[in-house]
Design goal:
The chain has one helix at 2-21; strands at 34-43, 51-63, 68-81, 84-90, 93-96, 102-104, 107-111, 116-120, 128-131, 135-145, 148-157, 165-173. By secondary structure, it is mostly beta strands. A hairpin with a 5-residue loop joins strand 5 (93-96) and strand 6 (102-104).
Amino acid sequence: MVRSALIALVTIVVFSVFLSTRPIPSPAIPNRGVKLENVQLTLYPEQDPKARWEFRASQVEQDPGTREAKVTGLQSGRRYVEDRLDMRLTAPEVVIDRSDNLRVPYARVEILKGCYTVDLGKPGEAPVTIDQREGFRAPSVHITAPSLEVQGKDFRSDFAIENPSWRDPIEKFISGGEQPPCPIEGGSS
């Protein structure tokens, strides 16, 4: 009986050593998706059917795992509503999520209606979200227009800046005399 137990124990030890010395198989290389260079990309958001976004960028990389597209080297970003230029977007990069919403580290948006220049977020802050249904969400904001200047935190607003909200506002209104011309009008970018 002891002899059978010893043979069984030796067999188990030999089998364990054999298994532990076998190489561990490498995990399969994940599909890296598609990487495109010198791209013109048009986004038709399902949540905002009257709008379309047009981007020109040095690179777009699609991640099939997250179903997100990362746009880097952004040369121009524009939003059109019913074929009219509505706003221009400048950002270091744009991530388009599976719901067509945009996430940027920080951005400058020029809104033609109302002549607003909106700086959303700053380097080192939480990312800015551009939600196709709701508009902007940013940790901080600096808005300039010919007749006002506003700074604040925890900014939320629709795309036209008609219903904005923010915390700790610093507001400066410019009144009297003739309103200065809008420096962002026009179709060039």
